[in-house]
Amino acid sequence: MTVDSSTETLSLSVAITGSGGSGAITCGLILLEAVAAAGLYGLMSRSLGPQIRGGESAAMLRIAREPIDCLDDRFDLLIGLDWLNLERFADELPLVPDSLIVTDTGKGRLPDCLLASRAEVLALPVKQLADEITGGRSNMVALGIAAFLCGLDLNSLLVVTRRQLADKGEKTSEASALCVARGFRAVQNRARLFRPYPAEDKPPLWNISGNEACGLGGLRGGIRFVAAYPITPASDMLEWLSPRLEEVGGSLLQAEDELASVNMLIGASFGGVPAMTATSGPGLSLMAEGLGLAVASETPLVVINVTRGGPSTGIPTKSEQSDLNLAVFGMHGDAPHLVLAPLSIRDCAFTTEWAVRLAEALQTVAIVLTDQFLGQNRGITDPAHSAKFELRRKTGLQNEDGYRRYAIAEDGLSSMGIPGMPECIYTADGLEHDEQGVPSNLTSDHPAQLAKRLHKLTCFDYGPHWLEIQGEGDVCLLTWGSTAAAVFEAARRLRTQRIDTRVIALRLLAPLQREALRDLLRPAMRILVVELNHQAQCFHYLHAQQVLPEDAGSLARPGPIPWRPGEIVNQVLESQDR
Amino acid sequence: MTVLTSQAAMTAGDAGHPLDPELREGRIPHIWCPGCGIGSVMQAFLEAVDTFQLERNRLAVVSGIGCTGRVAGYLKADSFHTTHGRPIPFATGLKLARPELHVNVLSGDGDLAAIGGNHLIHAARRNIDLNVVCINNFNYGMTGGQVGPTTPLGAKTTTSPFGCHEHPFNLVDLVASCGAVYVARWLSMDVRRLRRSIEESFSKTGFTFIEVLAPCPVNFGRRNQLDEAAQGRMLVERSEIRNGADTREVAIPDEGPIVCGKFVDHERPSYLQLLEGLRARLQEHST
To answer: Each residue of B235-253: pLDDT tens digit?
Structure first.
């Protein structure tokens, strides 16, 4: 067995499955932590049924020597604690004849969908090994098996296991360690599937989810108030933020609905405290009116939208990039605002910090589009340092001739009065207003204020962060948000096949940097816009903004399974043949 | 001197209105119809601010949408005119951001109890430190007199031309049962008691709610044989003050007495007090 030579990033993909409660996810989480301890990079995605408990579950990991941000095209190793309901998510676990399936001799026959892959099958008495230890569990035996095959070291695995299970009590953690060692030794006669380099002397890697990284970026940006309504897959960001906001002197309020949460943010922000919320599509829909109020009253706030499959209740536990239209166009009237999208789990911290600072400095709404894939997956990544932006909200009395909250300025930015500043008392209003903030339906004020609110966003210099760009070539893959990771990897593979490929990954979607983007696209021969939604929302958005040449193509497909790099490579190759 | 064109200024002559310094220059005349009760509630509110000696830089006023919603824009105070139904969540965020502010919500029955009803009950439940004055004019005045959650059974409105066939809210009972620490109901004409009540609510810690029944002669009265001053007169004639009355028994009846008064005035830890308590415990735990 060898790792596919078409992948430049040498990596190993492992899936552990079992019915809910079998401990497959715990097994994956400890394995991921062991990967981090070994100085390797990693990614763990989880697939859960809609049930809160019970149902099926799978931990899907990829480990590598280089940073990786997406899952591979196939799994090298699949360990089944049992095979109940496997067919429900077999599509998410592609296998090849090179793959290895570990099955428990006590758990019956392999499902046909797995046998069809012609992968090698290794049957081991997993449960029996666990049962021989008091308090032993199959998932810990599986952990040992997986860790050996991944090339990890037993001693450090045991340290990690004990640490991760410390809060379960000593009995459990010792029984687990024994199981891990048994599993490890049960496959010791086999060849390892992966050889990590000896750990280099480098700073410890981070084990972080995108939702946590967004929370961190928010705090770094200065967020001190969060109001939110729980919604899958965004709720874990709230759980992470709640105690940490307290630590930094902020607070989190769980609102009665998203109409309340967005308006609470506007209230706090009007009061001078940077404010943020986390939600998903249904919640963002409910917030649309409030976001318009924030735009019109020029009150900064940030919304992290962890996109799930839509429309309506859709697929709450799965990923999609189908809220772009809502994020860009969801408000009534002409309501210019910022839309950003992180390009990886680690980038969630950077993009959110930037979004907070931009929203504050530009006195507007920033919507950050992550998704279930970015939000709930855990990555072993290089540390994400704070970008320490200098951007700040302009406040206080600025003009000599009295306070005008919405004064027309060259850069469109007028100074915010904060309650308690006696010289800048004003009424903020969702009604159209004049420079003082007085409601006005004059033919002069409406266009002037609309232009002010647009101009402050379009004339701002966003610096280099609005995109990531890699490579030169005849093929240009244009993408945004979480699909970027798969596209970057696809481009690396294409380059090894001598297809020079440029990747443009947009971090800032609105306001679109039209001129700059157009300049980058001109030399490209074949442009493909890659995204995870059914109706090619970004492709049509770019077309409407007239940045794409006429022959640009679209690579769009809906979730729930994120793009895999090989899929993109194949599509590019096909389009070349055409 | 500011040129005043309001009715107030006209009756006060060149001397202007005593409350002129509290109002935003250039915003008068207001939009309210002759006979409307909202102006006198605004006056009572401003007088309460004065007699309570509330510092101006500690006062914030928040309104929603509707006739009452316009109050925020007329006052010389840090104020916010939110979207329809959302003054309470806005005010909640503002209060948490700036606990030193006195945050007041002045809005209408449709705004607070229909489109914003969910926020009203949750704010009362949380006992969030806000003072709410809800002006109930029994209909949606600004949009032309449609039926609302407080429209009495049988009353005619533009969208209930054959008479309203829905039960109205008993707002004071709704809010009291959710946990407000101060609940009262007054007529907009009873400016003196209203002012005192608003003042009293300023000294409370937690969520206070004052319902003010106000005539709407142009949009509601006119369609219900209560033209011009008739609705106001009817309210005065039928009103009866019963402080401490059980809120379950003060639903506004189709006929008979309309009970006003202070119904609830008790203590219950407010949202901010509970938050402070939590923080103190965390502090203790960490040291």
So the answer is: 999 999 999 999 999 999 9
In degrees, rounded to 5, the angle at the alpha carbon of residue A484 between the alpha carbons of residues A208 and A524 is: 155
Q: Could you tell me if B118 lies within 8 Å of chain A, comparing CB atoms?
A: yes
pLDDT digits (tens, 9 = 90+) for A550-565: 999 999 999 999 999 9
| Structural tokens at position A71 | 């899952």
Distance between CA A341 and CA A348 in Å, rounded? 8
The segments of chain A whose pLDDT lies below 50 read: 1-9
Six-digit token string for A120: 């090698």
Q: Residue B94: inside a domain, yes or no?
A: yes
For A138, list phi and psi in degrees, rounded to 5.
-55, -40
CA A415 to CA A395: how far, in whole Å? 5
In total, how many domains does chain B have? 1
Rounded CA separation B117/B114 (Å): 5
Show the tokens assigned to A303.
């919304």
Torsion of CA B23, B24, B25, B31, to 10 degrees: -90
Q: Which B positions 36-75 lie with beta carbon below 8 A of chain A?
A: 56-58, 60, 62, 72-73
Closest CA–CA distance from residue B77 to any residue of chain A (Å)? 6
The interface predicted TM-score of the complex, written ipTM, equals 0.92
Chain B residues within 8 A of A273 when measuring between CB atoms:
96-98
pLDDT of residue A199: 62
CB A16 within 8 A of CB A93: no
Question: Nearest-CA distance from A396 to chain B in Å?
Answer: 13
Domain that holds residue B167: 32-286
CATH of the domain at B95: 3.40.50.970
Judge whether A526 and A337 are in contact, CB under 8 Å.
no
pTM of this structure: 0.95
Tokens representing A171 are 């009995």
> For residue A220, which phi and psi values (nearest 5 degrees)?
-65, -35
Of A251, A264, A422, the CB nearest to B89: A264
Domains parsed from chain A with CATH numbers: 2-186 (3.40.920.10), 207-381 (3.40.50.970), 394-460 (no CATH), 464-577 (3.40.50.920)
Residue-wise pLDDT for B107-154, tens only, equals: 999 999 999 999 999 999 999 999 999 999 999 999 999 999 999 999
Name the nearest CA neighbour of A468 among A419, A508, A421, A428: A508
